[in-house]
């Protein structure tokens, strides 16, 4: 007896819908953490593994700034996920080379570029507030893969634009 596996498009749609919900949940949780850190600073910071040390108020401020960046990243991630879901839907109906998908890919590329800039900002905050006595251990290294992804998305957007134009030209001649 052979097992039946879902086709990749159906699976992609389900995964994207789950990711959209998880992204919104993470944003709500980060917001709750930020609010809690303002109400019960010492308790929240101890729960996060940061011990109150004289002179590490900048560390607490830096952690809150990182929380704000995390909250600001939610709409960008939502933009990426919803645009990708819309592209998957056009593939499902058999018409992916449309101008709307070119625009969606370009939007995704800009959103991921924005997320990368936020990543660098987090890295700068970590460098600015960490001390030997109170280090903030957050990975903020440069990833060539993420930057290549942005470049690839801009190129794919252009490919989709050309594909949509060619399709329109072909339909106009028939």
Beta strand %: under 5%
Return the domain count: 1
Instruction: Give the mean pLDDT.
Output: 88
Distance between the termini: 47 Å
Taking Cα atoms only, what radius of gyration do you get, to the nearest Å? 21 Å
Helix tally? 5
User: How many strands, which pairing sense, and closed or not: the largest β-sheet?
Assistant: none
Describe this structure in words.
The chain has five helices and no strands. The protein has 174 residues and is mainly alpha-helical. It has one domain (8-173). Helix 3 (57-92) packs antiparallel against helix 4 (99-129). It is elongated, with a radius of gyration of 21 Å.
Q: Main attributes?
A:
elongated, mainly alpha, 174 residues, 78% helix, single chain
């Amino acid at each position: 007896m052979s097992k039946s596996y879902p086709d990749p498009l159906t699976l992609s749609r389900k995964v994207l819908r789950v990711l959209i919900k998880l992204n919104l949940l993470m944003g709500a949780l980060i917001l709750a953490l930020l609010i809690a850190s303002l109400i019960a600073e010492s308790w929240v910071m101890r729960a996060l593994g940061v011990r109150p040390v004289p002179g590490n108020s900048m560390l607490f401020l830096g952690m809150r700034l990182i929380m704000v960046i995390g909250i600001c990243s939610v709409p960008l991630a939502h933009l990426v996920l919803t645009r990708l879901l819309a592209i998957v839907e056009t593939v499902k109906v058999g018409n992916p080379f449309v101008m709307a998908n070119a625009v969606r890919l370009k939007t995704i590329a800009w959103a991921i570029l924005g997320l990368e800039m936020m990543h660098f900002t987090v890295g700068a905050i970590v460098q600015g507030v960490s001390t030997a006595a109170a280090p903030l251990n957050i990975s903020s290294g440069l990833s060539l893969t993420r930057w290549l992804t942005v470049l690839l998305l801009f190129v794919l957007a252009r490919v989709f634009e050309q594909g949509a134009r060619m399709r329109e030209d072909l339909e106009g001649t028939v």
